[in-house]
Amino acid sequence: MTAALDGVRVVEMGGWMAAPGAAAMMADLGADVIKVEPLRGDAMRGATRMPHGDGVPDIDANFLHDNRGKRGIAVAVNKPAGADLVRKLVAGADVFLCNLLPRRQVKYGLDSASLLAVNPRLVHATLTGYGVTGPDVERPGYDITAYFGRGGLIHTMTEPGSFAPRLRPAAGDHPASLALLAAVLAALRLVEQTGSGQVVDVSLLATAAWTMASDLAPTLVDGQEPPAQGRRGRFHALHGAFKTADDRWVLLFMPEPRWWPLFCESVGRPQWPTDARFATFEARKQYMTELTADLDELFAERTLSQWGQLLDAHSFIWGPGATVAEFASDPQAEQIGLFPTVETSVGPIRTVRAPLSIAGADARPRGPAPELGQHTAEVLTELGLSADELSALAADDVIGQTR
Asked: Which of 16, 24, 224, 369 is the most exposed place for a label (fewest CB within 10 A)?
C-alpha cells in the first residue's frame, strides 16, 4: 500500500501534545518526522509515566502516543551552532512544525521569513495558544487556559450553581492537532500548485471557536449570551445524561418530537404524553424541572445494562457513559481498528490510531517514540557531518546522545 506522505520530511520542534500530536499523525501517514528536542528533552517526557505493577511495563504511554514513529535528535537551539543545525535540516525538509512563540522563533532564526529564505518551498507551521498576531501574541497558553477557558467551553459546560468540571488531559490539544494536520496538508497542496512556500498558523483559541461554533454562530448575529441551560433548563426532554440504579449514566439524544410518545410507552410511562405539562414540546420546555425529576426517578429504577437492553430493543438513540477501560475494550472500537499495536523496547503495546482512514492507503503507527537523542548521529550524518564534527558538537553541549 502507498503511504499518503511517503517522501515528505517534517522537522518538528514541538513540546507537550498539540504540535507533537499533529506530527505523529504525519508519521502515521508515512512522513519522515525528525523531532528536535532540547538536551533535557521535551517537557512531556516522563511527565505521565506511572508504574503499573503486576508485570505491566513502565511505559510513558502519553509521550509514546504523540511521538510515535518519529526519529529523535537532541539539539541546543539556544546556541548558535545548534540553531544553525536546525536551519540546515529545514533546508532539506518539506515542513517545519513548532509551537515556539513568535519572538522565540525570531530569536533563534526559525521564523517563517528566515526559513523560507533557505527553503522557498517550505511549509512553516506554528501552533500557539492565541495566534501569531494581536495583543496576546506573546501570551503562553495551554488547552486548559486558551481552549477550555478563554474559548468559552468551561463556562457553557458547567452546571449552573455547581463547580466547573475537571478537565481531562489534552482534550483540547488533540482537536488542535487535527486542525494543524489539516492545515499542513492543505499547505503542501498549495506548494504543489504554486511552487511557493506557505505559512500556517493554528491556535488553541481558533480551534475552540470552531468547536463552539453552534453557540458562537447565533451570538455573532445577535450579540446575546447563550442561555445557561443545565440539566433542568434544556429544550429537549430526551437530551442529556441520567443516572442509573448502579450509579452509571445513560446519555440520550432524541430531539424530534416523534420520539417522546414512543419512549414513554416503552419505559412504562404512557400517562406522560397526556399530562398537560408534558404533552407538547413547549409544555415540556416550560416544565423541564419537573420532568427532569421524573426522568431521574425513572432511570434510577434499572441498571445501565438493563437500560441498554430496553433502549436497544426499541431502536432508541442512546449511549452509555462508558469508562475509559470499557472504551479500551469496546468491540466496535476494535472492529474499526481504533487501538492498533506498536512494537516497543518492552514488547507490543496498544495505542490510539489517528481518526482518519483512507481505503487502500498505508496509514498506521510505524513505531515507538524515540528515546531522547536516539537518532542524533544518524540524522546529522545524513546531513553530511563527520564523526569528528559530531564529537566536537557533543563536547560543546550543542547536541546530545550521539551514540
From this structure: 224
